[in-house]
Amino acid sequence: MIEFFFDCSSPWTYLAFHNLQPLAAELNEPVHWRPVLVGGIFNAVNPSVYAMRDNPVPAKWAYMLKDLQDWAREAGLKIVFPPRVFPVNSVKAMRGCLWLEPQGKLLPFATAVFEAYWAREEDISQDAVLLKICDQVGVDGGAFLAGIAQPAIKQQLKANTEEVIARGGFGSPTLYLGDDMYFGNDRLPLLKAAILRQRAASL
């Protein structure tokens, strides 16, 4: 099984989230979607992200923007970066992913959150935006707001975030195949190769 630790506030995570689904289907490999709060990861183990944002290297930043658009074009996605609100507080959206998982709604909800933020520049920290997304994916808005306020949901998001840190993660998306860690959208070919190696070794 592939574990996918993710936060919808990252454009690279949007790409990986989108690209992993057909890859997993091709390989018939299940995915365990693990929502986290990437700000908590940065605060704990990767504060250099904040320094980079405050004082970016101009040439590197320009290339990053180009690289992101190259990947988005390849994936058939629209990604606007930076959006009007960046970074965004994604805690309610990520709690929503957790609450909706048992209902089979995590994937459509997360997809809609990614699209709202990265394609339409909507502020996913706002209840009104999240309620519009709920309506879009057939989720009762009142139940959603009550659900994401449950202590168990809040604790699960915290636990997922602490788990990925404990396992060596430092950002989003972080993927695992067993204990083998891969970081970022561009590592998906390496993940595929690892799955195929495992299967060949078991024959």
TrEMBL record:
Which key words are in the record? Answer: Isomerase
One GO MF annotation is: glutathione peroxidase activity
Entry annotation: catalytic residues? S10 (nucleophile)
The record, for Pfam families, names: DSBA (PF01323)
Documented EC number(s): 5.99.1.4
Q: Which reaction does it catalyse?
A: 2-hydroxychromene-2-carboxylate = (3E)-4-(2-hydroxyphenyl)-2-oxobut-3-enoate
What sequence ranges are listed for the domain DSBA-like thioredoxin?
2-195
Q: Which InterPro entries match?
A: DSBA-like_thioredoxin_dom, GST_Kappa/NadH, HCCAis_GSTk, NahD-like, Thioredoxin-like_sf
Mention one GO biological process in which this protein takes part, according to its record: glutathione metabolic process
The family line of this record is: Belongs to the GST superfamily. NadH family.
Q: What is this protein called?
A: 2-hydroxychromene-2-carboxylate isomerase
Q: What is the organism field in this record?
A: Albidiferax ferrireducens (strain ATCC BAA-621 / DSM 15236 / T118) (Rhodoferax ferrireducens)
For this protein's source organism, the top of the classification is: Bacteria, Pseudomonadati, Pseudomonadota, Betaproteobacteria, Burkholderiales
